[in-house]
């Protein structure tokens, strides 16, 4: 029987980078969520759903595509879309091209909500992510994020740009 390979332990420098990245992954979503809750009364996930629809042709996406864009399960997305429908920001309709699918459609009120919310959200992203970086560091962040994303999903889900 073959002896298992020795683990490839992190170097001290890699460990420090990993801990720093882990901190960002834990704290940044909470900070963005807090700003959106305070200023717009919505969660970051709800904003991602509305923004994804706003970037799509006709403000419309299949629920499965919207789930992939927002990195949420269909069941989570369905619960969120329920809440957004109750607020009048999204409607669900059968896909006229294939009745097996359901479309999420951004309403005019939903588009207004995105347009009202986006400036504050973008300012918070700028304050927390881009203001502390030089332009060169921002380019490095983009490249590093793409490489990590491609390692996570080598089959082509990266980089996420805009809604399909």
From TrEMBL:
It comes from the Bacteria. SMART domains: HTH_MARR. GO terms for molecular function: DNA binding; DNA-binding transcription factor activity. One of its GO terms (biological process) is response to stress. This is DNA-binding transcriptional regulator, MarR family. PROSITE patterns: HTH_MARR_2 (PS50995). InterPro entries: HTH_MarR-typ, MarR/SlyA-like, WH-like_DNA-bd_sf, WH_DNA-bd_sf. It comes from Geodermatophilus ruber. Residues 1-150 form the HTH marR-type domain.
